[in-house]
User: Fold this.
Amino acid sequence: MAPSEPTPAARVPRHLAVIMDGNGRWAERRRRPRVIGHRAGARTVNVCIDFCLEHGIEALTLFAFSSENWGRPQDEVGALMKLFLNALEREVDELDRRGVRVRFIGERERFSDAIRAQMDAAETRTRGNSRLHLTVAASYGGRWDLAQAARSLAADVAAGTLRPEDIDEAALGARVALADLPAPDLFIRTGGDCRISNFLLWQLAYTELWFTDLLWPELDAATLRRAIDDYAGRERRFGLTGAQLAARPDETAA
Ligand code: FPP
Assistant:
């Protein structure tokens, strides 16, 4: 996918970024342990993948585990790790069969050897696929992402292969996660909170934001449809005026 092609709003988004919030509350409302909510949430991941495949959405980025989530109670972190491992083992064949390329962004070193091996295997197994680019952000934080990009540029400066004056938005943008994909067109967050919570801070600069009070395990295809219908009606101006956009020869130039 060409990373720089802008997306006209009156279409299906090319890249959807999602914060899957509300698993814990979903379980607590049922007087069940929080891990039951995460298990239900894993099923909703499949609903979301199916939706993207059916609607021709090219990239889906899911926030599965933030840098800050390591601070949760040990039993919840352990249960989530087990869930990730099981999901990877269970789903990768089917994802591969359906043409999904799976990748992970985040601080991979913090995961156990077993999980890292599964992540590597899923990436290797699906690397030839292009129908849907599925990125799972795990042990990820937007600030971490910017810091690792800055560190990588600084290393090149120290090695003498990059001049400080050549560091511009394009240079930094090329070192953050998802640099090979178009920026997310639409961001969806479930669970009722209207914030970005250290998700793709750089990449979401001009992304359309959509929030729902539904908890992640409650999300269904009809709600996703509402989100993309809403997106389709929005005017994306990217800092220009509506008149400037209207004067453009075709909407793909917007
Ligand atoms: C946020 O809800 C959700 C998480 C921290 C975990 C997300 C994990 C999944 C959806 C399951 C598996 C995912 C994959 C990719 C296999 P929360 O726990 O913060 O909910 P709360 O706000 O109600 O407490």
Remarks:
- The domain at 10-251 is CATH 3.40.1180.10 (Undecaprenyl pyrophosphate synthetase).
